[in-house]
Design brief:
Blueprint (H helix, E strand, L loop, with lengths): L12 E6 L5 H16 L2 E6 L2 H13 L6 E5 H10 L8 E7 L3 H4 L7 H10 L4 E6 L3 H9 L5 E5 L6 E7 L2 H9 L6 E6 L2 H10 L3 E4 L14 H10 L6 E4 L14 E7 L3 H8 L15 E6 L3 H33 L7 E5 L6 E5 L1 H17 L5 H9 L6 E2 H17 L3 E2 L1 H11 L12 H10 L4 E8 L17 E7 L2
Parallel strand pairs: 1-5, 1-6, 2-3, 2-4, 4-5, 7-12, 7-15, 8-10, 8-11, 9-10, 11-12
Antiparallel strand pairs: 13-14, 16-18, 17-18
Helix pairs in contact: 3-5, 11-12
């Protein structure tokens, strides 16, 4: 893009979509810096995370580039916008929106992302550059709003992923983490600080990270000195790093001992950003620097619930668009919508209901995504398999369930299984029909063993003909029928 930048016109909108670690920030801090310096202008570099902004500030100061580049958080811009009308300084000819998926991804938690977005878009005299590894959603919004832009796309490369695994049960993941070898490390992203903190408590050799400025009670457990050292050295000393998505972008972890990246993150863009925190070695030994990615699956039942949540927000907003404020208030007067708010008209004579377009678009975008993945079985896992360019995936729970079942079956081989023991076996095997009814017959259990290559078979209708036990006591099971499990070589 070194030569491309010379073709950009004042006032253009540029979008750059490229995977993590391919040089987006380097391009701004070097190529664009030199261009701005020649022109006698400056660059405003907008970021979405405090830790990331601090890291960039140190870098530009170390490189003596703070004369041209000014670092600012989106949240700072939004605070100023709410207090007064603000126009970016004339000194800044270039406004760089780094990690610009922020506008959509965080609109569900921050109603003010539209303020910074609209302000940047309104700066028609400035060249506005939007960069992200996960730009699909916002670029779709550009198209929806008919915002013209010059687009660049660098294909993603996920060849560093050794294996893709999904899990359903948190306890299964916990068991798996206990099996990770001593000389290997894992980074685990959780959707809540509470969950990350709980794992940190269980696994003593670990570091816990969440937002230091958020409302989470768990932030009192932060070890700021160790976190600061991790950010500076781009590696952590502990075996595990348990973190929220506060480290979802900009932070680099360069450590070949990191062999597992775990994510319990539901938003796809945020998930992809989290996976990108582990930076792969660029030296001759990069072939050995591969990671196993483990992702929490979202069940169809949960996806259906999320779909309903989207529709609950979308439908009232549609009604407002179609019928206006008066009719909306008549129908939804007691409903508090997260995408609808009050505004005063220009003449200050009345209050009108308006829609947060970014948040509304995000709900529609998510709704479409949920509908698409529900069209096929295991749609969520298949979608991520395709997105991460993997030929296959495995389910961690299945591996553990099979191992647990085998241990149980081995323990009852050759024993006489009466009514209570039969019921336990039936529940352990857990075969269900299309209506989710538990299947109890020996024939069906044996068919299950054959289909799943389990070296067992069960025989029923066996009768206990012993009148007395070995100690000469009366046999309480005399004449009762039982099952017997056999194991084959």
């Amino acid at each position: 893009m070194g030569t491309e930048v010379e073709q950009w016109q004042q006032g253009e909108i540029i979008t750059i979509e490229a995977g993590t670690g391919v040089g987006k920030s380097y391009f701004i801090k070097n190529t664009l810096y030199e261009k701005a310096k020649r022109e006698g202008t400056k660059i405003l570099f907008l970021l979405n995370r405090t830790r990331l902004s601090e890291q960039f500030q140190r870098e530009i100061e170390q490189d003596n580039k703070a004369d041209i580049i000014k670092i600012l958080l989106y949240q700072n811009v939004e605070d100023v916008v709410r207090k007064r009308n603000v126009v970016f300084s004339k000194d800044y000819q270039y406004i760089v929106s780094d990690e610009f998926h922020y506008f959509l991804s965080e609109s569900k938690f921050n109603n003010n992302t539209e303020d910074s977005f609209n302000l940047i878009i309104s700066e028609l005299e400035k060249t506005r550059i939007f960069m992200s590894a996960t730009a699909d959603g916002v670029i779709e919004y550009f198209r929806f709003k008919h915002i013209e832009h010059r687009s660049y796309n660098v294909p993603h490369d996920y060849s560093h992923i050794k294996e893709l695994i999904f899990y359903r049960n948190d306890k299964v993941l916990e068991k798996f983490l206990h099996t990770i070898p001593k000389n290997q490390k894992a980074v685990c992203f959780s959707k809540s600080a509470k969950k990350a903190s709980t794992l940190h408590t269980i696994f003593k050799d670990s570091l816990f990270v969440c937002s230091a400025s958020g409302t989470s009670r768990e932030k009192k457990y932060l070890d700021k000195e160790r976190i600061s050292r991790m950010l500076m050295e781009e590696k952590f000393e502990e075996k595990f790093l348990f973190t929220t998505s506060t480290l979802d972008n900009g932070v680099n972890l360069k450590d070949k001992q990191i062999k597992y990246v775990v994510a319990d993150i539901e938003d796809i863009d945020t998930l992809i950003q989290c996976l990108g925190r582990k930076r792969i070695a660029s030296d001759s030994d990069s072939d050995s620097d591969k990671v196993t990615v483990i992702i929490k699956n979202i069940s169809d039942k949960m996806i259906n619930k999320k779909l309903e949540d989207c529709e609950r927000i979308i439908n009232p907003a549609k009604y407002l668009m179609d019928n206006g404020t008066l009719e909306y208030v008549k129908k939804y007067r007691r409903y508090s919508s997260p995408v609808i708010y009050d505004t005063v008209t220009v003449d200050n004579e009345k209050v009108e209901k308006v829609i947060n377009e970014l948040r509304y678009f995000k709900e529609c975008y998510d709704k479409k995504f949920y509908e698409e993945i529900l069209q096929e079985e295991n749609g969520y896992m298949k979608h991520l398999q395709t997105k991460l360019q993997q030929n296959s995936y495995t389910i961690l729970d299945d591996t553990y369930e099979k191992a647990t079942l085998s241990d149980y079956l081995d323990s009852i081989v050759g024993k006489q299984l009466y009514k209570e023991e039969q019921e336990e076996l039936i529940k352990k095997v857990n075969i269900r029909d299309s209506r989710n009814r538990l299947q109890r017959g020996c024939r069906i259990i044996n068919e299950y063993f054959i289909e799943n290559n389990c070296p067992y078979s069960v025989k029923d209708k066996m009768k206990n003909n012993k009148r007395k036990l070995d100690n000469n006591e009366p046999n309480p099971n005399y004449t009762k029928t039982y099952w017997s499990l056999a194991k084959h070589n």
